[in-house]
Amino acid sequence: MAILAIYNQGDPVPLREIAEREQISLKFLEQIFPDLRRAELITSVRGSRGGYKLLRSPKEIRVGDIVRAVEGPVTPVICLTEGDDESCCHRRGACLTRQVWERLRDRINDVLNDVTLDELVEVTADKQ
Q: What is the pTM of this model?
């Protein structure tokens, strides 16, 4: 996603180029890019000059959007993702540590939602 943000105003970026630049497996990218498309973060362009582009400005895409598109809800324990029923844990109502896990989940999500793709690319460029 960072590569797409860097080339946001240019031509679509082929997956192979992203894989080479970031030293990421092409097969891995082929697995996660459909998730990013379903989340309406990217679009694909077919043809010999095809590839992928962002659907929105990098300033409008939060790192949390990307993580949740690929990984699902960000929680430190599974019982926080299963709604309010007790099917995932019979001790849910009596759990002594639940409030800690909820606070941790909220802080993690606050950080992920606080950083835009634009800011991520900007910070990365400053370090190079």
A: 0.84
